[in-house]
Amino acid sequence: MPDDQPGQVTVLLQHWKQGDEEALRALVPLVYKELRRLAHYYLRSERPDHTLQSTELVHEAYLRLVGSQADLQNRAHFIAVASRLMRQILVDYARSRGAVKRDGGCRITLESAEFLPLDGDAELLALDSALNDLARIDERQGKIVEMKFFGGLSAPEISEALGISRATVDRDWATARVWLHRQMNRAAET
């Protein structure tokens, strides 16, 4: 992201919230490269014959974001919301392919990964299910995992986006990772 003016994304988001469509047009070039990086990261771990491409994923996320009327606070929050939308798009796509019927077992490991390597639709669906379960138990932990895995945000960025301390992010991340590891192991055993 260009750093020519600190807080420029935040200012543009505030103007957009107030109904300034020009602010949205100015915002897009500032975040587009970051969104493409996220989309490329997601799709890199998809199967080789996946029909979605980075540009399509970014554009679909953008369309959903614009239509959502989300109350975006700053750059970190924008990227977190966009990353959640990308996750939802890929999960919707995997569901539409009926991947659950062909699931050969879950092979996701979380011990040392900061970003999650996904080896197919079935694993993405299993992770989505586990994250949804986590979010029902502890919404903040679910958001932290989502921002870290799918948004590629650092602990300080997550702290800023959620308005919590860095220590809380680190503590919740550690707890959530252990919980997800257990859930994914259980899913693999069934």
List keywords for this structure.
mainly alpha, 0% strand, 8 helices, 190 residues, single chain
What is the tally of helical segments? 8
- The shape is globular
Main structural class: mainly alpha
Mean of all residue-level pLDDT scores: 76
The beta-strand count equals 0
Could you state the order of secondary-structure elements as H and E?
Answer: HHHHHHHH
Radius of gyration: 17 Å
Biggest sheet character? none
Tell me the fraction of residues in β-strands, as a range: under 5%
Number of domains: 1
Low-confidence stretches: 99-117
Q: What is the percent of helical residues?
A: 55-70%
Distance between the termini: 43 Å
Give a summary of the structure in a few sentences.
69% of the residues lie in helices and 0% in strands.
Q: What does this protein structure show overall?
A:
- The protein has 190 residues and is mainly α.
- It has one domain.
- The chain is 69% helix and 0% strand.
- It has eight helices and no strands.
- The protein has helices at residues 8-17, 21-44, 54-68, 75-96, 121-137, 139-149, 155-162, 166-189.
- Helix 1 (8-17) crosses helix 2, helix 2 crosses helix 4 and helix 6 packs across helix 8 (166-189).
- The longest helix has 24 residues, at 21-44.
- The model is unreliable at 99-117 (pLDDT under 50).
